[in-house]
């Protein structure tokens, strides 16, 4: 996970002071990429302890098409609490766009089912994309998508995935985002009888909030441990049939957690 630490260091050393929507203030750089070979282990940050539990439940929740935080709350995951309305709704965020992108004719498109069908039947396609940036619906979303599109690529029996993220909270968001899409790549690969290849993360506004600077500096004093491995314990019938218990992370050695406040 040296790439992540290098990115953090670059923001600390070269970041430009920028005000932001939350009022917290950031230092920021623009447009970076990181590559993770999923054959070399699972890219879960080791320089602070991360609980994969929230990340797995959030991904299963996205895949189910749900946009109400009740499922997360029932599973003790609080990461979306601050953005939900009094009924727990977030508007047509990730789950809605992934599973039921509304069309003009009043129908809806299940992009996840579609992309998996294409990976299986047309693996050389250059259109293996899922898009959450539905311009006509942005104003109804509690937060416009940060990770807004991803593309798959099949070669040599391996499935790779490239993510585009417009706005990137280096300390709290990015470790979640890397782990989440790496999980998704493993799951889609398993469903398509492929091996996981690379996960490529691309970020636009890459920032450290002003109240995360000390935490970032502390993290940079720590030596990373070798990456753990991800084990999928069974092959469910479809991408929508995974349950929390299907995932096991093996050999995760990490430094202690570092607390930080989320900017709302
Ligand atoms: N400012 C900001 N940064 C984000 O990363 C972010 C948002 N807002 N809004 C929407 C979602 C919510 N996300 C979140 C929210 C909270 C944590 C967080 O507090 N993480 C703690 C542990 C929390 C837990 O596992 O329960 C951490 O130490 O990583 C992480 C990502 C990612 N997104
Ligand atoms: O998955 C996510 C979701 C959100 N973020 C961060 C990036 C920004 O710090 C905020 C969103 O604020 P905007 O003003 O809408 O850009 O949330 C993330 O890193 N990862």
From TrEMBL:
Primary subcellular site in the record, as a coarse category: cytoplasm
Binding annotation for dUMP: 21, 126-127, 166-169, 177, 207-209
Catalysis: reaction(s): dUMP + (6R)-5,10-methylene-5,6,7,8-tetrahydrofolate = 7,8-dihydrofolate + dTMP
Gene3D superfamilies: Thymidylate synthase/dCMP hydroxymethylase domain
One function term, GO molecular function aspect: thymidylate synthase activity
Residues given in the record as (6R)-5,10-methylene-5,6,7,8-tetrahydrofolate binding sites: 51, 169, 263
Pathway(s) served: Pyrimidine metabolism; dTTP biosynthesis
Origin superkingdom: Bacteria
Record-annotated Thymidylate synthase/dCMP hydroxymethylase domain positions: 2-264
Record: active site: 146, 146 (nucleophile)
Signal peptide: none
Entry-linked InterPro entries: Thymidate_synth/dCMP_Mease (IPR045097), Thymidate_synth/dCMP_Mease_dom (IPR023451), Thymidate_synth/dCMP_Mease_sf (IPR036926), Thymidylate_synthase (IPR000398), Thymidylate_synthase_AS (IPR020940)
A biological process term (GO) from this entry: methylation
Keywords: Cytoplasm, Methyltransferase, Nucleotide biosynthesis, Transferase
EC number(s) stated in the UniProt entry for this protein: 2.1.1.45
The keyword Cytoplasm is assigned to this record: yes
Complexes and interactors: Homodimer.
Function: Catalyzes the reductive methylation of 2'-deoxyuridine-5'-monophosphate (dUMP) to 2'-deoxythymidine-5'-monophosphate (dTMP) while utilizing 5,10-methylenetetrahydrofolate (mTHF) as the methyl donor and reductant in the reaction, yielding dihydrofolate (DHF) as a by-product. This enzymatic reaction provides an intracellular de novo source of dTMP, an essential precursor for DNA biosynthesis.
Name of the featured protein: Thymidylate synthase
Organism, scientific name: Caldalkalibacillus horti
């Amino acid at each position: 996970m040296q790439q992540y630490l290098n990115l953090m260091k670059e923001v600390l050393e070269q970041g430009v002071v920028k005000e932001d929507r939350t009022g917290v203030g950031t230092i920021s750089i623009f447009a970076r990429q990181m590559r993770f070979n999923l054959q070399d282990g699972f890219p879960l940050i080791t320089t602070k302890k991360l609980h994969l539990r929230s990340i797995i439940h959030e991904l299963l929740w996205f895949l189910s098409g749900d946009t109400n935080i009740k499922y997360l709350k029932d599973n003790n995951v609080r990461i979306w609490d601050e953005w939900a309305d009094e009924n727990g709704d977030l508007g047509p965020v990730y789950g809605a766009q992934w599973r039921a992108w509304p069309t003009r004719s009043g129908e809806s498109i299940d992009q996840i089912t579609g992309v998996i069908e294409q990976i299986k039947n047309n693996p050389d396609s250059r259109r293996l994309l899922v898009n959450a940036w539905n311009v006509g619906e942005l104003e109804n979303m509690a937060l416009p998508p940060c990770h807004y599109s991803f593309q798959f690529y099949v070669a040599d029996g391996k499935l790779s995935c490239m993510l585009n993220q417009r706005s990137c909270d280096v300390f709290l968001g990015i470790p979640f985002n890397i782990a989440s899409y790496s999980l998704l790549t493993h799951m889609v690969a398993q469903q398509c009888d492929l091996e996981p290849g690379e996960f490529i993360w691309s970020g636009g506004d890459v920032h450290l909030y002003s109240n995360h600077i000390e935490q970032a500096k502390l993290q940079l004093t720590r030596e990373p441990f070798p990456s753990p491995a991800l084990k999928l314990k069974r092959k469910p019938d479809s991408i929508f049939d995974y349950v929390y218990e299907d995932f096991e992370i093996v050999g995760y050695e990490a430094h202690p957690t570092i607390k930080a406040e989320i900017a709302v």
